[in-house]
Every structure is written in structure tokens, then in C-alpha cells.
Amino acid sequence: MNKFLISNIARFIILALLQVLILSNINFLGYINPYLYVFFILLLPLNLTQYKTIFFSFLIGLTIDIFEDTGGIHAAASVLIAYLRPNFLRFSFGISYEHQTVKFHQTPFAQRFTYISLLVLIHHLMLFSLEIFDLSYIVLILKKTLFSSLFTILLILIVTGLFKQNKK
Description:
membrane, Rod shape-determining protein MreD, transmembrane helix, Arp2/3 complex 21 kDa subunit ARPC3, mainly alpha
């Protein structure tokens, strides 16, 4: 196995364990809960085929669903953002994505922030829509989506910053 594969497997295990053991137990004010495992999907290699990206996203979502007994909502939300990911990469990184020259840690902050924010917001909107599954609670769905997304985005930016400093 090469170093790249080992690092992705390690990232999968670490993020899944961190999510299940620590982050899923945070329920601040009843509607703020970080979902850092989404970071795994965000960082999947750009040269992976769409099928592999969707498969690995499904795997991490299913892993979270199994441990949290959530009936597939994490898997569904993860597959959705994996499917939409090429469009958001193209939107956020433009020509760099088209030429496969995107280095996540070397991109401008605004592009990274746009990419992270869009995928996290879509993931959380799908997740909470499936969790509540009642449009009469649309305000609650939007509130949970907004606040959990902000917390998740902040957490992803902090983790990204920590690893960026370690690579220097």
C-alpha cells in the first residue's frame, strides 16, 4: 500500500471515531452539532472517479449511521455531496480544478471557504431534512442547518489551519 492510501484510510478512521465518540455527543442549545466527518469527503483526491468518490462517501456516512443508529441519513447526505462535489469544485476553484492542479492547502482562503461552506451547507440541509422529515418544521430544519453548518465550517477551518501549520 502506498503512503497516499494509508493516509486516506487513517483519515477515515480518525474522523469516524472522532465523530462517533466525541462530536456526536455535543448538542449545544438543542440544535448545534458538528459533523467533522464531512471533511473526509472534502479532501478526497480529485483524480478519483465519481463512482469511487460516491462509494467512499457512502462508506463514511454508513459508518456514522451504524454507530449512531440513524437509519441511513448520514449516508444519504454524504452521497449527495459526493455527487455534487465536482460542480462545487469547478465553481470554487475554476480553471485550477479543470486542469487538476488544485492543491487544497495552497489555494486562496476565499476559494477554500466557498468550497467548504457550500458542501457543508448542502450536507447539513439534506441531513436535517431527512432527520426531521416534516416541512411544518422548516424553521427548525433551517436553524439546525445554519448553526451546525457554521460550527462545522469553523471546526474544519481550524483543523485545516492546524495541519497547514504542521506542513510548513
